[in-house]
Design a protein that fits this description.
The chain has about 450 residues and is an alpha/beta fold. The protein folds into two domains: about 5-45, no CATH class; about 55-370 and about 390-415, Alpha-Beta Barrel (TIM Barrel). The protein has twelve helices and 19 strands. Strands 1, 2, 3, 4, 5, 15, 16, 17 and 18 form a nine-stranded mixed sheet that branches. The protein has a six-stranded parallel sheet with strand order 9-10-11-12-13-14. Strand 6, helix 1 and strand 7 (about 85-90) form a beta-alpha-beta unit. Bound molecules: zinc ion. Zinc ion binds next to loops. The site of zinc ion has 5 residues, from loops.
């Protein structure tokens, strides 16, 4: 593999922004120096004033292949990721078919991913009632950790778990030092659900049908399980800011608890979602502006470690785009290709910097995945990186969306930040809107 040198006035490193030359060889970052290394003979890419960033790491993506490849797929998802500067993502154990709940199904998933990965991909396994004897084999097979639900997942082949099943999974995971990712909502009947059914295009009624209390109660229970087992609990896509005080206390107590939120909870707010616009439907729901500003504060304070897309697309008919029926519509937002630009736009408005973006979208999620060789531009790390112009305004329309389906609340809006080129394992895979060198991604197994 040829060597390459990239010059940039703005190399975003964990120590700050440096003006220098980043040397790539054999898929690794060899050095960052202020002059051309004396022994360097290869080509030099001059990125001038453009920024050189660590490749983003997205630990929460639903690729849905095999079995629901008409929803998304490895080819399209990993291309959309590269277009957003994401060089590593982790696939959820649902909504593929079969779901990744045992080693046999995991092998089917691995087979389905062959020769399709434009970025690096790891995998989560799943916890469902009755698969407690499969978890060791799944973990030995290389999944990075396990995912469970406390409420209906949306698909019947991935049922939610009860307290004792979650506890068992945590005790198993503890042996491997890997996390349990939990969708925290404890559903309970209340009049708001009936009201929502009766008026299914109202966003306000949808929001009221999945109250903060569902999340708060579930998180309280997971903190208790974390305390009982001392095993790593990770709360995915936090939406209720009311749970932050509990999280703060649990962390102060020293419990192994971590939290992510998603771009859509930070970028959008309930007040601005028009009725009957099902592309905003997700669970837990996008809440009020005041709530979401508290999520930003929690990110700043370090209570929330990182931001992940929870990219969860579905075909237009399942999204009920025509009817606008929020009750019937599939819950999930397609946002992989907008992970960087939407987040950066909203972060920039609040006075955050590109260094903050590198921390929240690259370094912290890489640390969460225990991948110290990813998410940062330092000598010895993997050459996963991208060149971008954080000042450029962009708008991505249907023709430029690489997701299998083009429905996304992020489409056709003005965002800040244009990805010029993305490198995966030292190879330029994407440049100026086009796939350059396909299938450079590696499967990331934990052993
Ligand atoms: Zn998800």
């Amino acid at each position: 593999m040829q060597e390459e040198l990239i010059y940039s006035k703005n190399i975003v490193t964990p120590e700050g922004i440096e003006d220098g030359y980043l040397r790539i060889s054999q898929g690794k970052i060899v050095s960052i120096t202020d002059k051309v290394p004396f022994d360097f003979k290869g080509p030099i890419t001059d990125a001038e004033h453009l920024y050189l960033m660590p490749g983003l790491v997205d630990p929460h993506v639903h690729i849905n292949e095999p079995g629901r490849t008409h929803w998304e797929g490895f080819e399209t998802a990993t291309l959309a990721a590269a277009a957003s500067g994401i060089t590593t993502l982790v696939d959820m154990p649902l909504n593929s078919s079969p779901v990744t709940i045992n080693e046999h199904n995991f092998q089917i998933k691995l087979k389905a991913s062959e020769d399709k990965l434009n970025v690096n991909v790891g995998f989560w396994g799943g916890v469902v009632p009755g698969n407690e004897n499969e978890l060791d084999d799944l973990l030995k097979g290389g999944v990075l950790g396990l995912k469970a639900f406390m409420t209906h997942s949306g698909i019947d082949d991935f049922p939610n778990s009860e307290y004792h099943e979650l506890k068992n999974a945590l005790l198993t995971l503890k042996k491997y030092g890997r996390p349990l990712l939990v969708h925290c909502e404890l559903s309970a009947d209340h009049p708001g659900i009936e009201k929502h059914k009766g008026n299914p295009t109202s966003y306000k009624d949808y929001l009221a049908s999945r109250p903060k209390d569902w999340e708060n109660k579930a998180i309280e229970q997971m903190i208790q399980l974390c305390r009982e087992t001392k095993s790593h609990v990770h709360i995915v896509h936090l939406s209720s800011a009311e749970a932050l005080s509990m999280i703060e206390e649990a962390k102060a107590e020293g419990l192994p608890l971590s939290v992510e939120t998603a771009q859509h909870y930070l970028v959008f707010c309930a007040e601005e979602i028009p009725d009957g616009t099902t592309m905003y439907k997700c669970a837990p729901p996008i809440r009020e502006k005041a709530n979401n500003e508290l999520l930003w504060q929690a990110l700043k304070d370090g209570l929330i470690s990182f931001v992940a897309t929870d990219h969860s697309p579905a075909p237009p008919e399942l999204k009920e785009s025509e009817s606008g029926n929020l009750y019937k519509a599939w819950g999930g937002i397609a946002g992989l290709q907008f992970a960087l630009s939407s987040f950066w736009t909203a972060a920039h408005e609040r006075g955050f910097t590109v260094t903050d973006v590198a921390k929240w979208l690259a370094e912290n999620p890489a640390d969460f995945l225990q991948m110290k060789n990813k998410g940062r531009l330092v000598a010895g790390a993997d050459a996963d990186l991208f060149i971008w112009n954080p000042k450029a305004k962009i708008s991505i329309g249907e023709n430029e969306i690489h997701h299998r389906h083009k429905i996304s609340p992020y489409a056709n809006r003005e965002w800040l930040g244009q990805v010029i080129a993305t490198y995966v394992n030292g190879v330029k895979v994407y440049e100026n809107g086009m796939l350059k060198n396909p299938h450079q991604g590696h499967v990331l197994l934990k052993k």
